[in-house]
Every structure is written in C-alpha cells, then in structure tokens.
Design brief:
By secondary structure, the protein is α+β, with helices and mostly antiparallel strands. It has one domain. It has four helices and four strands; from the N terminus they run αββααββα. Helix 3 runs antiparallel to helix 4. The longest helix is centred in the first third of the chain and has 28 residues.
C-alpha cells in the first residue's frame, strides 16, 4: 500500500471542500432561480431542472417518518456514519482511489447533512433521462456520493486477485 503523505491529505481535503462548495452553491442557485418557477428542460428533455425539498433520503425513502424519526435517521445516524467514515479514512490502508471514493462519499453526505441540520430538508433540482426512463430528482452531493461508491467498487474489484487483496 502506498504511504499516505501530507500531500495526499491536502488533496483529499481540497476534494472535500470543493465538492461541498459546489453543492452548496448549486443548491443556492436552484433555490434562487427554480423555487416557485416551472421546470426547465434542456437537450430535448434529457436534462430537467426543477426545485424540490426532499424530507427523506435516497429516492425520498423515509420521507413518511415522523419528524423525530427523520432526525434520528438523517441527522444523528448520518452524522455517526460520517464520523465513522472519517475515522476509517484516517486509519485506513486504502489506496489513493479508495481514499478518493471515501472522500467524495463523505463530502456529499456532509453537504446533505448540513441541509438537514439547518433546514430539515435537502434541496434537489436535477432530473435526467430519456422519455419515460428517468432518474429521481437529485443534487451535486448525490452525484458525489454515487461517484464515491463507484470508485470504491472499482478499487475493490481491482484489488481482487492481487497479493494484498
């Protein structure tokens, strides 16, 4: 495993800050320009911008929970997962790609967590698809979470069959 250096941690900190910053800025722009406005479609409807406040998690799962239940799951539970991920990252023997994956996952989770702590909801504004095949409504933080998980899966798949894997 490669040794973690100060430069590695600096890179990961920059990725964390840039990801959270991009998500915060895009959510602010979405709130300012899309809230109360109609949907906006681009590329023949492939990309749709719309404003929604999600009280649940991924694909609005958990939106039907009581306010206390949502707080327990999405504020307390997510906060604990983020702390555990940070500790795991600092103590890990991950390669750079895995560390980058964990960092993106943490950045997206942290930015959505900030929304939940400050507003009780998460701002979502992107929807993509072709015809009737569409994604749920999501945001930049959600893309970071998925990219981070994707990097972790690829890194794990690459490690299978290696002497350390």
């Amino acid at each position: 495993m490669p040794r973690k250096t100060f430069a590695t941690y600096l890179l990961l900190l920059a990725v964390l800050a840039a990801t959270i910053g991009c998500d915060r800025v895009t959510k602010r722009i979405a709130a300012d320009t899309l809230a109360g406005a109609g949907d906006r479609s681009f590329l023949a409807g492939t990309v749709t911008l719309l404003y929604t406040e999600n009280t649940g998690g991924f694909l609005s799962m958990g939106a039907g929970l009581s306010r206390g239940g949502r707080t327990a799951v999405f504020v307390v539970g997510t906060g604990l997962v983020l702390v555990a991920a940070a500790i795991g990252l600092l103590r890990s023997r991950f390669d750079l790609w895995s560390m980058l994956g964990v960092t993106l996952f943490m950045a997206g989770g942290a930015s959505n967590w900030i929304d939940r702590v400050t507003h009780g909801t998460v701002v979502d504004f992107l929807n993509v698809g072709l015809g009737p095949v569409r994604t749920g409504v999501f945001n930049v933080a959600d893309m970071a979470i998925m990219a981070g998980l994707g990097l972790l899966i690829v890194a794990e798949a690459r490690s299978i069959g290696t002497p350390d894997g």
